[in-house]
Amino acid sequence: MKKNRFKKAWLTEHLTDPYVKLAQKDNYRSRAVYKLQEIDVANRLLKPGQIVVDLGSAPGAWSQYLARTLGARDGSLDGTVIALDLLPMEPVAGITFLQGDFREPEVLARLEAELAGRRIDVVLSDMAPNLSGISSADAARIEHLADLSLEFADAWLKDEGALLIKSFHTGYFSQVVARFKQQFQVVKAIKPKASRDRSAEVFILGLHPKRRANTVD
Ligand SMILES: C[S@@+](CC[C@H](N)C(=O)[O-])C[C@H]1O[C@@H](n2cnc3c(N)ncnc32)[C@H](O)[C@@H]1O
Predict the structure, then answer these.
(1) pTM
(2) Cross-strand bridge partners of residue 13
(3) Hey, which residues are catalytic here?
(4) Which of 14, 22, 116, 209 has its CA 20 to 30 A from that of 195?
(5) Which atom of ligand 1 is the closest one to the Cα of 63?
(6) Please, which residues have CB within 8 angstroms of residue 95's CB and are 6 or more apart in sequence?
């Protein structure tokens, strides 16, 4: 049957994927971590002492990476990481987790309350909407999440802050990049090695915010 063949192909790919093996060896919850690691190493994004928001954090591999990157020698966290996801997430030591839908104003308000007026060094979003298969509807959902992340970054990033989001090559991709360019001095579209070739996913990184629409202090 076609479905079984698809499952078998997925399983074979999963079991032979070097990043899956590496994630098991490094004790990470998902191979997604190597996408963030590559972008972080190339752009020197993450450092101890920072305030970082991890949107779409479950199952938690990016949060684990943040805990290790911002970790102090005594094992505590040097900095603040607030992670958020629709789904529950197993705790990651030192990290505050909020469960909820980032599109909901009440959830955004909880996240903002957690910041308690502190501005953010790095906003990360690995959020991906549930895809319906209808390309125009899916593209609109992807664009909506990107817009919300851009608005959030505009309000809360520090002057030297950064925004990294997962996006997809859909009809709206060039519009999303154009919005990044309105908001950031440096904009990069990045396809990390750990991102599968057949996937339309591509990350967009914005560095050095241009101007602040709604500063919080
Ligand atoms: C690819 S996974 C993230 C993997 C994660 N970075 C890691 O390293 O484990 C995408 C996540 O985005 C979350 N997500 C999608 N839409 C969301 C929304 N509107 N609000 C919060 N989380 C959302 C999903 O629940 C899912 O857990």
Answers:
(1) 0.92
(2) none
(3) 166
(4) 209
(5) 8
(6) 54, 63, 66, 67, 77, 81, 82, 83
